[in-house]
Amino acid sequence: MLNFPTHQQPTARIIFQSHDHYQVIYADRSVHQAVLAGRLQLADTLPLIGDFVSGQFYDHDKFLITELLPRQTLLTRASNYQEQAVAANVTTVFITMSLNADFSASRVERYLTLVWDSGATPVIVLTKADLEPALLAARQLELAAIAFGVPIITTTSTDPVTVQTQLNGYLQPTTTAIFVGSSGVGKSTLLNILAAQQLQATKAVRAGDDKGRHTTTARHLYYLANGAALIDSPGIRGVGVASSTTAATGQSFPEITSLAQQCRFNDCQHQQEPGCAVQAAIKRGALSEQRLIDYRRLLRETEYATMNSRQITAAKIKRLVGNKKNLRRH
Ligand SMILES: Nc1nc2c(ncn2[C@@H]2O[C@H](COP(=O)(O)OP(=O)(O)OP(=O)(O)O)[C@@H](O)[C@H]2O)c(=O)[nH]1
Ligand SMILES: [Mg+2]
Ligand SMILES: [Zn+2]
């Protein structure tokens, strides 16, 4: 049996979410489709992958989520106007970066900030050591200078036994770990090695620039044999865009809302993401670009409307600072 918090009612854990469709795992490791009780659908805080919930079974094996149990940690991602929730109750974040074209020490720095804010513990994982053996030592030094004692692990997928021995120490029965990092760095590959089975699909990176193909499209939580939980996530596609769609904005733009349901990524920003149904509709002339621009403007306004004055000032400063950073970079 999995190690779940005790509660009067049956307790389950969210392992997948897509819009209002959930999957939960029960302590006996059985997986069930799940929905939110009406009362919860209107709550300020919606259950999220990694959350423990309680509820009851209906229709034989479906689960009705009636209560969100208290969170130990919350991992969020920075966005222009607010934080976007990534996963709940994460204890360990594997900041995953490949040693080839993807390498960026300043990106690791940004990830570290997010992880420390969340209450989880970071571990830096440098992948594809086989491809860049000559660069390894210099890059480890570069990271050590910003990582202040955060463990730095180096992996090679063709040596699964070493991968297991290096990462197993971080995967206790009480651990919930998540892999974050760019597309194509080998997050799903590592998960498959640790689970010793092909749980997630993996795909070769583009020749030339080593960019990944966004093979993983949604977060998914798996339990390893020893009871450690491990979340695979899609490669981050540009940080810094708010994702929340308020109900009001959705109602004013029903055609965009319904198109968005068909986007490949749950949190698609309808910019350059692959498989974006909104951009596809613009391309074939079924949606005017102006509609999308108006939609974005309203979205931003409604986001400000839900903030207090201190939060608005903070968001504006954040935007200014972000712009300056971009200026310096170019
Ligand atoms: N040479 C080498 N290739 C690797 C290594 N790790 C992963 N790969 C390859 O890199 C490619 C991308 O790996 P994935 O595991 O799909 O990458 P991902 O991070 O899950 O990518 P997304 O799901 O798109 O975010 C695959 O072809 C892997 O076989 C490694 O250590 N060495
Ligand atoms: Mg993947
Ligand atoms: Zn989209």
UniProtKB/TrEMBL annotation:
> Is ATP-binding one of the keywords UniProt gives this record?
no
Q: Which residues form the CP-type G domain?
A: 79-239
Which ranges carry the EngC GTPase domain? 88-237
Q: Which Gene3D superfamilies match?
A: P-loop containing nucleotide triphosphate hydrolases, Probable gtpase engc, domain 3
For Zn(2+), which residues are the binding ones? C263, C268, H270, C276
Q: What is its EC number?
A: 3.6.1.-
Instruction: Please tell me where GTP binds in this chain.
Output: T127, K128, A129, D130, G181, S182, S183, G184, V185, G186, K187, S188, T189
Where does the source fall among the domains of life?
Bacteria
Q: Which InterPro entries match?
A: G_CP_dom (IPR030378), NA-bd_OB-fold (IPR012340), P-loop_NTPase (IPR027417), Ribosome_biogen_GTPase_RsgA (IPR004881), RsgA_GTPase_dom (IPR010914)
Q: What does this protein do?
A: One of several proteins that assist in the late maturation steps of the functional core of the 30S ribosomal subunit. Helps release RbfA from mature subunits. May play a role in the assembly of ribosomal proteins into the subunit. Circularly permuted GTPase that catalyzes slow GTP hydrolysis, GTPase activity is stimulated by the 30S ribosomal subunit.
Name used for this protein in its record = Small ribosomal subunit biogenesis GTPase RsgA
The organism of origin for this protein:
Loigolactobacillus jiayinensis
This protein's gene is called rsgA
